[in-house]
C-alpha cells in the first residue's frame, strides 16, 4: 500500500510538472528563436545603414565593422547588388549569385525578410535576416545575415535539460516526502492487519492498542476491532466452556445408565429382551463415545502451548499397542528412520498419540471393509530438515475426491453403516492445526487405499538435517 501511495503522489506530481514545464519549454523555444531573428534583423538594418554611408563617402571597400561583426557572432554577412550578385561576403566567396533565394527577392522588392529555413546548399537549418539597402529612396542592394540555427537550438536543448533535471529533483524530493507520509498512514494499518491475522488464528489475548500517531479513522477502526476481538474471545470461551461442561456432566449419568442396563441384562432370561438391552447398551456406548469426542474436541480448540515430542518412539509405542488388536486381521508395519538420531517435533501435548490412535482405528476399519486377508497398514516416520512427516497408509476402499474434502467435517462419515461419532478425524484436524502442522489425504500410491500425511514442525533443524 505504501508503494501505491508513493506511486500515486509521483504520478500526480509528474502530471503537474508536465502541465507546467511543457508550455514553459515551448514558450522559451519560441521566444529564443523569435528573439534571435529580431536581433539579427536589427543588426542587419544597422549594418545596411553603415554600408550605405560608407558607399556614399567612397569607403565601400573598407568595411572592418562588418568583418568584426561576423567574427564576433559567427554569422555570415552578404552584401549584394540588385541582381543578387554578392559584392561583399565574409565567408570570402564573393561573386556568388543569390538571386533565387526568397529572402533576397523580398529584400530587392523593398521588404525585410527574416526567419528560419532549411539550406539545401549546406544541408542544415539557417536563421536569416535580409534587408534592402536604399539610397535616396531607391533599393540599390541587399544585406543578408545568416547563422546556423544549431546555435539557438543548442541553447534551447540546454534549457530543456535544465527543466528535466529540476523535474527529477522535485520528483525525488516528493518521493521522499511521500514515502514518509505514506509510512505514517500505512504503518498503523499494517499493525491493524497483524491484529486481524492474529484474530483469524484464534488468538485474542494480545490486542493492539490504538496508535496515537495514526489518523482518527484508523484509531477508531482499531478500537472497533479490539472490541470485536474481546467479544469474540468471550463468545468462543463461553462456547468451549459450555461444550466441555455439558460433555463432562453427561459422562456420569451415561456411565451409570450403562451399568444399570448391563446389570439388568445379566438377570434377564428372555432372549428377546436381552437382545433389546444389548442394542440399548450399544447406543449408550456410542453416546458415551460421542460425549468423549466432544469433550476432546472442545479442549483441542483452545490454543495450548506446544512441547517437544519424539515421533519415532511414539509411533513405535502406538504401533505395538494397536498391533495386538490387529493381530490375525491385518499386518501392521512400522517404517522409521534408522540410527540413534531422534526425530523431535513441536506439538500439543498428547496430540501425536491421539492422532495416531484415530488414524489407526480408521485404518483398521478400512482394512476390515476391504475383505482381504493380506491387507496391510503402514505407519511411516519421515525426518526432514524443517518438517517431519507421520504417514498412515491402508489398503481399504479409499475415498473419493469429494469425500476427501469432507472427511474432517464434524459428524460426517463416509460409511454411514459403520458405528462411530464422526468426530475422530475432526479431532485429528484440530490437533494438527493446533500444533501448527498440516494434514493431507491422498490416494495410496501403491494402489487401492488411503494415505494420510501429517506434517509437524521440526524442533531443531541442525540435528534433523542428518541423513536417516
Describe the structure.
It is a single chain. Helices cover 56% and strands 18% of the residues. It is α+β, with helices and mostly antiparallel strands. The chain folds into 3 domains: 2-155, PAS domain (Beta-Lactamase, 2-Layer Sandwich); 216-300, Orthogonal Bundle (Helix Hairpins), CATH 1.10.287; 306-464, Heat Shock Protein 90, CATH 3.30.565. The strands form 3 sheets. A 5-stranded antiparallel β-sheet has the order 2-1-5-4-3, with helices on both faces. Helix 1 packs antiparallel against helix 4 (150-200) and helix 6 (271-300) runs parallel beside helix 10. It starts with a helix and ends with a helix.
Can you describe this structure in just a few lines?
The protein is α+β, with helices and mostly antiparallel strands and 468 residues long.
Biggest beta sheet summary = 5 strands, antiparallel
Which structural class should the secondary elements be placed in? alpha+beta
Give the helices and strands as they follow along the chain. HHEEHEEEHHHEHEEHEEHHEEH
Quote the CATH topology of the largest domain. Answer: Heat Shock Protein 90
Which ranges are low-confidence, i.e. pLDDT below 50, for 5 or more consecutive residues? 461-468
Q: What is the radius of gyration?
A: 49 Å
- Tally of distinct domains: 3
The CATH class of the largest domain is: Alpha Beta
Q: What global shape is seen? A: rod-shaped
**What strand order characterises the main sheet?**
2-1-5-4-3
Number of strands: 12
**Average predicted local confidence, pLDDT:** 78
Number of helices: 11
- In CATH terms, what is the architecture of the largest domain? 2-Layer Sandwich
- The residue fraction in helices comes out at 55-70%
Beta-strand content bin? 15-25%
Ends distance: 46 Å
CATH superfamily of the largest domain, called what? Histidine kinase-like ATPase, C-terminal domain
Amino acid at each position: 500500500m505504501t508503494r501505491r501511495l508513493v506511486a500515486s503522489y509521483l504520478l500526480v506530481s509528474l502530471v503537474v510538472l508536465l502541465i507546467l514545464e511543457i508550455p514553459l519549454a515551448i514558450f522559451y523555444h519560441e521566444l529564443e528563436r523569435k528573439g534571435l531573428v529580431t536581433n539579427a534583423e536589427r543588426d542587419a538594418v544597422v549594418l545596411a545603414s553603415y554600408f550605405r554611408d560608407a558607399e556614399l563617402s567612397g569607403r565601400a571597400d573598407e568595411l572592418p565593422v562588418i568583418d568584426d561583426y561576423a567574427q564576433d557572432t559567427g554569422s555570415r554577412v552578404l552584401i549584394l547588388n540588385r541582381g543578387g550578385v554578392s559584392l561583399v561576403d565574409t565567408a570570402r566567396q564573393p561573386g556568388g549569385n543569390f538571386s533565387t533565394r526568397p529572402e533576397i527577392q523580398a529584400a530587392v522588392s523593398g521588404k525585410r525578410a527574416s526567419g528560419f529555413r532549411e539550406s539545401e546548399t549546406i544541408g542544415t537549418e539557417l536563421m536569416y535576416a535580409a534587408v534592402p539597402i536604399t539610397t535616396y529612396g531607391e533599393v540599390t542592394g541587399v544585406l543578408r545575415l545568416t547563422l546556423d540555427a544549431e546555435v539557438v537550438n543548442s541553447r534551447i536543448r540546454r534549457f530543456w535539460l535544465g527543466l528535466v533535471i529540476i523535474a527529477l529533483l522535485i520528483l525525488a524530493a516528493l518521493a521522499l516526502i511521500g514515502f514518509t507520509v505514506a509510512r505514517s498512514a500505512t504503518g498503523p494499518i499494517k499493525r491493524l492487519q497483524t491484529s486481524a491475522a492474529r484474530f483469524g488464528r484464534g488468538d485474542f489475548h494480545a490486542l493492539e492498542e490504538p496508535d496515537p500517531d495514526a489518523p482518527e479513522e484508523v484509531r477508531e477502526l482499531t478500537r472497533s476491532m479490539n472490541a470485536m476481538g474481546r467479544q469474540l474471545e468471550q463468545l468462543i470461551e463461553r462456547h468451549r466452556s459450555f461444550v466441555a461442561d455439558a460433555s463432562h456432566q453427561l459422562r456420569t449419568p451415561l456411565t451409570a445408565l450403562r451399568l444399570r442396563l448391563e446389570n439388568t441384562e445379566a438377570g434377564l432370561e428372555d432372549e428377546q429382551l436381552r437382545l433389546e438391552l444389548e442394542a440399548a447398551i450399544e447406543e449408550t456406548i456410542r453416546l458415551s463415545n460421542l460425549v468423549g469426542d466432544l469433550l476432546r474436541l472442545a479442549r483441542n480448540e483452545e490454543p495450548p502451548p506446544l512441547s517437544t515430542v519424539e515421533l519415532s518412539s511414539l509411533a513405535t509405542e502406538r504401533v505395538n499397542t494397536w498391533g495386538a488388536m490387529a493381530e490375525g486381521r491385518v499386518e501392521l508395519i512400522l517404517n522409521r528412520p534408522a540410527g540413534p538420531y531422534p526425530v523431535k517435533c513441536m506439538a500439543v501435548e498428547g496430540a501425536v498419540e491421539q492422532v495416531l490412535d484415530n488414524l489407526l482405528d480408521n485404518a483398521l476399519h478400512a482394512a476390515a471393509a476391504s475383505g482381504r486377508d493380506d491387507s496391510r497398514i503402514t505407519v511411516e516416520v519421515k525426518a526432514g530438515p524443517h518438517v517431519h512427516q507421520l504417514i498412515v497408509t491402508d489398503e481399504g476402499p479409499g475415498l473419493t475426491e469429494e469425500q476427501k474434502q469432507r472427511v474432517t467435517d464434524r459428524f460426517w462419515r463416509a460409511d454411514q453403516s459403520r458405528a462411530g461419532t464422526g468426530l475422530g478425524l475432526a479431532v485429528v484436524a484440530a490437533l494438527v492445526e493446533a500444533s501448527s502442522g498440516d494434514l493431507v489425504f491422498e490416494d495410496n500410491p501403491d494402489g487401492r487405499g488411503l494415505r494420510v500425511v501429517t506434517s509437524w514442525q521440526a524442533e531443531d533443524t541442525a540435528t534433523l538435517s542428518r541423513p536417516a
